[in-house]
Amino acid sequence: MRKKLLVGTGMALSLLLSPFSQSFAEQPTVGERKQVSNVAHRGATAYTPENTIAAFDLAVDMKADYIEIDVQRSKDGELVLIHDTTVDRTTDGTGKVGDLTLEQLRSLDAGSWKGEQFAGEPIPTFQEILDHYHGKIGILIELKAPELYPGIEEQVAAALIERNLHKPQNEKIIIQSFNFESIKKMDQLLPKVPIGVLTSNRADTTLEALQEFSTYADWFNPSYGIVTEELVNQVHSLGMQIGSWTVRSQEAADFLFEMGVDAIISDYPDYVDPRN
Ligand code: G3P
Ligand code: CA
Fold this sequence. Notes:
- One of its GO terms (molecular function) is glycerophosphodiester phosphodiesterase activity.
- Residues 1-25 form the signal peptide.
- 32% of the residues lie in helices and 18% in strands.
- By secondary structure, it is an alpha/beta fold.
- The chain has a single domain (9-71, 124-136, 153-272), classed as Phosphatidylinositol (PI) phosphodiesterase (TIM Barrel).
- Calcium ion binds at residues 68, 70, 142.
């Protein structure tokens, strides 16, 4: 599974040119296409309210490989799933997530904004989602704005350890963040759990930056606007996999298939499904 190697420039380039790189490129395929993990971004978000049970259940029904979830923390220390750092956009409440207690957060309606049929969908807790979905679908855990929640890394680690989800065989858990210090810490806490770097910044795609990421990360996950075939090859040569986001059109999905990425993070799991 993970490499944890600091691969030097020379080795990276020679890997690209060596016979080993050919076997490295021989990956599972679906028909003529390389097998790509289908990650439902905040659930099947195109059709349901993001980061809710409705969104995750539909992702399971649509046969996605992973759900992607955004983890934050309530005022009284409970881990909850919500993308924005305020509740304003996706619920009928107002205020910062970290200023509201679990009880207050749970009383909000996180579904109606997407459609009346979703009225009353609550904000899920991290623990309930782990309990409900592990074994049914992979879980790509994003630590969202962890700088706002000191110690959240230890809490996430504890929840995974409690459920025995930190072992090498449990590969369908990945932890990612835009906050690199936070995921470095996660890697120290849970050395067997794959770690992903999130970025939309081209400055993070230099060979030097990628080499640094490869010392602790298994995945390099850029926005699709900065993905090139060269970047994909470089990430692979450093022993990491690459997942890209956020796909909201078939054209964007097709572009990423063409680039040879390993995972596509999409609001539309149907655009990534090899059966379509
Ligand atoms: O998983 C990638 C993606 O979730 C990162 O952006 O803003 O949707 O959390 P965002
Ligand atoms: Ca996210």
